[in-house]
Input
Amino acid sequence: MSISEREVDMLFEELAKAVFKCDRGGDPWGYANAEVYDLFVSDPIQLEGKRALSNILIKLILDCKNSTNIEIYKELDDKIWMATSQDEIIEIINETVQVFNKSS
Output
């Protein structure tokens, strides 16, 4: 499944749905939902938001067969925990989607 460019909250939801192969909110934690993105809007970024994006990347790492992409996903996961702004989170989401789309 390829993910198209959308508003960031919808992009987050589409990424989670594609990674967990589910409908809206159908993943084990309910992260595949645009409202979860609101956790990245506050200052500071809420830990629960970082955990949600990290779980998406961990799922990608576990399912990935391309060692180069695995390393990229690991680097992006590390960036999540260092991120201090919504802009950094947007960049991580966009990079994740780009790698995901290239491998799909």
About this structure: The two ends are 6 Å apart (CA to CA). The chain has four helices and no strands.
